[in-house]
């Protein structure tokens, strides 16, 4: 076994002894779940899957479907339009409460039942069957396999779902649900009855953690800006009336469901999912809350945690004197985000010759550049050129593309040697006094 699987097994074994919580029984079919069922799965950004316990036992997805359907509605309507229909504020109330704005009837957020029902109705399709087909296909793309419906859970939920029907009728009468209430809850019940395993949910969570690209199949399921919004709403509202405590203790965007499923996404690291039916009073699976607490603590995953400084970005900053020319050379590696680019700009200032001379920026080992930092860097280079320096950049396309749209006041080369050779072209300058 590998160390990741080892630690999942160790945790699984220890937390199996945890016997608190109660299996949901308001949907009769859910009451049949075995309280001892307990599965854990984790999927890395490289698409590697690690499991412990009953990670392949099927169960209905329930509310864990909500963030994904929210992402679907976001891509259909766009953020501003969706916000007009469904809020983004934590309700502080249980998942099935009447959390509607007094004047408009707009539901508080898409992670509670009222908001999820309204969100389901907004998925743009001509009829309920097509709408559900689209939802199922979307969930399947996140999971990386074709998901089906647990018809027994669906029938059980449809037979006992009066509270959800009531929520739909209330929203309809308040003017915040523009679709047929019966049809809408029926689609919502089907959505909640989609059958998954902890492994499926971990792949789905990993897809969110990976900016919308499923790390197992390689498919871009949804765009990154939509993922950012979805994860933000999960972080503030995903754990119902336990959301504040969860953000405080565990600090990861997460979503739970009454059948005992829970997902958490650690952006750019991994997706994790747990299946364990006994729930705490907020409707969150007891063992999952304990397990995520441990995982977050052990690996320092809290989103407010100060990450350790990354490997050095600036790997060289020097001033060369060649053929009577002063050439400042800065070399960088890795990925350029705010912190790294700030260090890079500082290094450029340090090596820039005092009189007009040459500056070489070697970015050949830079793997990625965010647009904001690239534009900032381009402005610094433009300023150097304005002050009379000859500026050469050795870079892969990443930087050139990210800085696109800025006036190009520098020469681009594919290697550092070419950039340096360019500095030495032409007659040597007259010696400075
Ligand atoms: N289908 C369930 C319901 O509407 C989903 C609730 C949940 O998982 N919290 O009651």
> What's the level 1 CATH class of the largest domain?
Alpha Beta
Distinct compounds present: glutamine
Number of contiguous helices: 16
| Helix vs. strand class | alpha/beta
Total DSSP E strands: 12
Low-confidence stretches: none
So, the CATH homologous superfamily of the largest domain? DD-peptidase/beta-lactamase superfamily
What topology, given as strand order, has the largest sheet?
2-1-7-6-5
From the alpha carbons, calculate the radius of gyration and give it in angstroms. 27 Å
Profile the largest sheet: 5 strands, antiparallel
Average the pLDDT over all residues and give the rounded result. Answer: 93
Q: Percentage of helical residues? A: 40-55%
Entry keywords:
5-stranded mixed β-sheet, 2 domains, Transcription Regulator spoIIAA, binds glutamine, 433 residues, 43% helix, elongated
């Amino acid at each position: 076994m590998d160390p990741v699987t080892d630690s999942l097994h160790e945790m699984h074994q220890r937390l199996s002894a945890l016997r608190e919580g109660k299996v949901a029984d308001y949907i009769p079919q859910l009451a049949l779940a075995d309280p001892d069922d307990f599965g854990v799965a984790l999927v890395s950004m490289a698409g590697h899957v690690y499991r412990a316990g009953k990670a392949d036992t099927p169960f209905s997805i329930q509310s864990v479907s909500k963030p994904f359907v929210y992402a679907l509605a976001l891509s259909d309507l766009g953020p501003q339009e969706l916000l007009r229909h469904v809020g983004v504020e934590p309700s502080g109330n249980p998942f099935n409460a009447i959390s509607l704005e007094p004047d408009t009837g707009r539901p508080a957020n898409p992670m509670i039942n009222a908001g999820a029902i309204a969100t389901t109705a907004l998925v743009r399709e001509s009829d309920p069957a097509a709408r559900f087909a689209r939802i199922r296909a979307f969930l399947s793309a996140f999971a990386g396999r074709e998901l089906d419906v647990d018809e027994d859970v669906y029938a059980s939920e449809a037979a006992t779902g009066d509270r959800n029907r009531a929520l739909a009728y209330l929203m309809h009468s308040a003017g915040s649900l523009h679709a047929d209430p019966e049809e809408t809850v029926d689609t919502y019940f089907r959505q909640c009855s989609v059958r998954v395993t902890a492994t499926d949910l971990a792949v789905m969570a990993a897809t969110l953690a990976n900016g919308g690209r499923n790390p197992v199949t390689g498919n871009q399921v949804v765009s990154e800006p939509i993922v950012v919004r979805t994860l933000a709403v999960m972080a503030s509202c995903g754990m119902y009336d336990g959301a504040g405590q969860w953000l405080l203790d565990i600090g990861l965007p997460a979503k739970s469901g009454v059948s005992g499923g829970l997902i958490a996404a650690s952006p750019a690291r991994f997706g994790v999912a747990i299946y364990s039916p006994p729930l705490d009073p907020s409707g969150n699976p007891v063992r999952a809350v304990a397990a995520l607490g441990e995982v977050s603590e052990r690996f320092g995953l809290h989103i407010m945690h100060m990450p350790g400084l990354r490997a050095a970005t600036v790997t060289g900053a020097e001033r060369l004197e060649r053929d009577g020319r002063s050439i400042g050379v800065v070399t960088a590696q890795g990925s350029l985000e705010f912190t790294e680019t700030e260090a890079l700009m500082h290094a450029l200032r340090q090596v820039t010759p005092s009189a007009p001379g040459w500056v070489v920026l070697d970015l050949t080992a830079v793997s990625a550049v965010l647009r904001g930092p690239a534009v900032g860097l381009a402005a610094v280079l433009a300023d150097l050129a304005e002050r009379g320096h000859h500026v050469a950049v050795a870079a892969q396309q990443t930087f050139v593309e990210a800085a696109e749209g800025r006036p190009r006041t520098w020469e681009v080369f594919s290697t550092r040697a070419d950039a340096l050779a360019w500095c030495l072209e032409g007659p040597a300058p007259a010696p400075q006094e």
